[in-house]
Write a structure and sequence with these properties.
- The protein is α+β, with helices and mostly antiparallel strands and about 650 residues long.
- The protein has three domains: about 10-200 and about 255-345, ABC transporter type 1, transmembrane domain (ABC transporter transmembrane region fold, Up-down Bundle), CATH 1.20.1560; about 355-395, no CATH class; about 400-635, P-loop containing nucleotide triphosphate hydrolases (Rossmann fold, 3-Layer(aba) Sandwich).
- It contains 20 helices and 18 strands.
- The chain has helices spanning about 10-25, 25-45, 45-60, 65-115, 120-125, 130-170, 175-220, 220-225, 230-285, 290-295, 305-345, 440-445, 470-475, 490-495, 500-510, 515-520, 540-550, 570-580, 615-625, 625-635; strands at about 285-290, 300, 355-365, 370, 380-385, 390-395, 400-410, 410-420, 425-430, 455-460, 460, 475-480, 485-490, 530, 555-560, 585-590, 600-605, 610-615.
- The strands form five sheets. The protein has a six-stranded mixed sheet, sandwiched between helices. A four-stranded antiparallel sheet has the order 4-3-5-6. Strands 8-7-10-11 form a four-stranded antiparallel sheet, with helices on one face.
- Helix 3 packs antiparallel against helix 4 (about 65-115), helix 6 (about 130-170) runs antiparallel to helix 7 (about 175-220) and helix 15 (about 500-510) crosses helix 17.
- The longest helix is centred in the first third of the chain and has 53 residues, at about 65-115.
Length: about 650
């Protein structure tokens, strides 16, 4: 077994500490000061106990109790004052830690979410969404326990341990040596047990992520599960995944739960052993060696006023060592969570080396383009050059693909030597069997993935030079799988253009053929949608997606099976709106239903990543090739 798996990943722990300190440097210093004050005041009573016992022994011999009260009472009052200071310090640092912890987690979640927004589509295609969600919940919560509980406990216990050890050494080196031997045994056992605990806590966090990912997948697929009567099979698979989670959790908690009793009992044995040894040393009046001998001048014998406080200090010492060892489990969980969080944060972001941007523009009668700082409805590409000059190219939507090769996975080519030529205002359709590469082409237009070879030009500009956000802003995209967000119908349509007026939202809905059903909803455009619009039909949801693309008013539209979930009657309504939407725009249509592409200017037939036919519907029918066979044999490709 690899011993490295047993060790806590210190690099992840250091990153958490750096981020924590960077978030609240001044408050953390104040917290540390308060913890140190409360810890020292917790250790000091042992000194007062020894002094009071020594005073009592002295005055017992002399019998002058009137004088004793004048000596003992001030010391008791000082001790009470120290406890009050300790209480204030504890109150202050606990309240500050609550603020620091929640603020820190808030910043960590924001940073995690910001990083996620900059990750490429490939990351989400290759990682389960439930597992990603688990990083925001379970893994963040593990770090919360570290920051809010483990760190203050370890710091406070550490200061107490050091303070008590110094006091022990001051009073008796012999008794201190006995305590150190016992604590050494405690640390060895703690290290051994904590190694297994760390390993299984790391496995447990990963198992939680897999479990949540599976549950989410099953929730999304409930209709399919019930249609095919796969409830039993899904339950069996969940039991297998859950059994792994149970095993990892059981092992982690078994190690964690056994550590406390073991350390506690070693401490009890040490306490009893010290009491017996101290009694023997008192019985034989053995000389005492400690730093006090130097301050008091010469060796003395071990006395009862040293042994009794020493027993209390031993209990305090071992108790705090036990507290520190108990926090190893929280540290292990936090590091496991931090490893998973940082694995996302360290993932390669979407590369965007584009420098050509989209700007508002005005074009005069001579065709000269002028950049303006207000919305005109006219757009232009702002192209800075190496010599410091700027050129402006009007946005027309002229997208061209030249001899493009592409693979999702190295060695498995999806597109081979694909070229797409079309003029602005033309409607281009891609047809072909599943896996032929239709959706891949549109993914490359948006630069969701980058090509391996060839060129893609947009208005004559290589799209690699165009800033991705501006490139995507110039294109409207309607996917087969519709995503609606929690909010009103109007807000979901306005997602395509956040500053769209109510009139623009309604016009887009009318254009897409969605206004009729929206007006029949309980609150019309103010109807609240939740859980991806589950209170709407699939066709209605897709109409809203089309309206969302329409309100953005882009020069290029990409329709990936945009009408696949709409019935024939609704499709005719939508088609009329789509025809209006397509006027003056270049439109790329991906379709399995061939009836939706007959009026396209150019139809391209793909097979195994290559374009094997291209032309109008009439031309392809006349050629009697693959398209003709598809059209005459079946209207559906799947």
């Amino acid at each position: 077994m690899n011993n490295n798996k047993k060790k806590i990943n210190m690099s992840s722990l250091k990153r958490v500490f750096r981020f924590l300190y960077k978030s609240y440097p001044k408050l953390l210093v104040l917290v540390v000061v308060c913890i140190v004050i409360s810890s020292i005041t917790a250790a000091v009573p042992a000194i007062f106990q020894q002094q009071v016992l020594a005073d009592i022994k002295t005055f017992t011999i002399s019998g002058d109790w009137t004088a004793a009260s004048k000596v003992i009472i001030p010391k008791v009052l000082i001790l009470v004052a120290m406890y009050v200071v300790s209480l204030i310090s504890i109150t202050v640092y606990t309240q500050l830690m609550a603020k620091i912890t929640q603020g820190f987690l808030n910043k960590l979640r924001v940073q995690l979410f910001e990083k996620m927004q900059n990750l490429p589509i490939r990351y989400f295609d290759t990682n389960k969404h439930g597992d990603i969600m688990s990083k925001y919940t379970n893994d963040i919560d593990a770090i919360r326990q570290l920051v809010s509980q483990a760190l203050p406990t370890i710091l406070r216990a550490g200061v107490i341990i050091i303070s008590v050890l110094v006091i022990m050494i001051y009073y008796s080196l012999m008794l201190t040596a006995i305590v150190v031997c016992g604590v050494t045994i405690m640390l060895v056992v703690s290290k051994k047990v904590a190694g297994g605990s760390t390993r299984f806590f790391r496995k447990r966090q990963a198992s939680i992520g897999r479990t949540e990912a599976y549950v989410q997948e099953m929730m999304n697929g409930q209709k399919v599960i019930k249609v095919f009567n796969r409830e039993d099979e899904c339950t069996e698979e969940f039991e297998r995944i859950n059994e792994t989670l149970y095993h990892d959790s059981f092992k982690a908690n078994a190690y964690a739960n056994i550590l406390g009793p073991i350390i506690g009992n070693i401490g009890n044995v040490l306490y009893v052993s010290l009491a017996l040894i101290g009694g023997v040393l008192l019985l034989y009046t053995v000389p005492n060696v400690g730093l006090s001998c130097i301050t008091l001048g010469g060796l003395g014998v071990l006395t009862i006023d040293v042994v009794i406080p020493f027993l209390n200090m031993t209990k305090q010492f071992t108790g705090n060592v036990n507290q520190v060892s108990q926090q190893v489990n929280s540290i292990a969980m936090a590091v496991a969570g931090a490893d998973r969080i940082f694995s996302l944060m360290d993932s390669e972001v979407e590369v965007d080396d584009g420098y050509v941007t989209l700007v508002n523009a005005e074009i005069d009668e001579d065709g000269n383009v002028k950049e303006v700082d207000y919305r005109t409805g006219t757009w232009a590409w702002k192209h800075p050059h190496s010599d410091g000059t700027l050129t402006y190219t009007p946005l027309k939507g002229d997208v061209r693909m030249v001899e493009v090769d592409f693979s999702y996975v190295e060695g498995k080519q999806v597109l081979r030597n694909v070229s797409v030529f079309a003029e602005p205002g033309q409607k281009v359709a891609f047809v072909g069997a599943t896996g032929a590469g239709k959706t891949t082409i549109t993914n490359l237009f948006n630069r969701f993935y980058d090509i391996e070879d060839g060129k893609i030009r947009y208005d004559g500009i290589n799209i690699n030079k165009i800033k991705k956000s501006d490139l995507r802003r110039s294109m409207g995209l309607v996917l087969q799988d519709t995503n609606l967000f929690t909010g009103t119908v109007a807000e979901n349509i306005r997602y395509g253009k956040l500053d769209a007026t109510d009139e623009e939202v309604k016009a887009a809905a009318v254009l897409a053929g969605a206004d009729d059903f929206i007006c029949r909803l309980p609150q019309g455009y103010d109807t609240m949608l939740t859980n991806n619009g589950e209170n709407l039909s699939q066709g209605q949801r897709q109409l809203l997606a089309i309206a969302r693309a329409a309100v953005s008013n882009p020069p290029v539209m990409i329709l990936d099976e945009a009408t696949s979930s709409i019935d024939t009657h609704t499709e005719q309504i939508v088609q009329r709106g789509m025809d209006k939407l397509m006027e003056g725009r270049k439109v790329f249509v991906i379709a399995h239903r061939l009836s939706t592409v007959q009026n396209s200017d150019v139809i391209m037939v793909l097979e195994k990543g290559e374009i094997i036919e291209r032309g109008s519907h009439e031309k392809l029918i006349a050629d009697k090739g693959t398209y003709y066979q598809l059209y005459t044999g079946a209207f559906e490709l799947e």
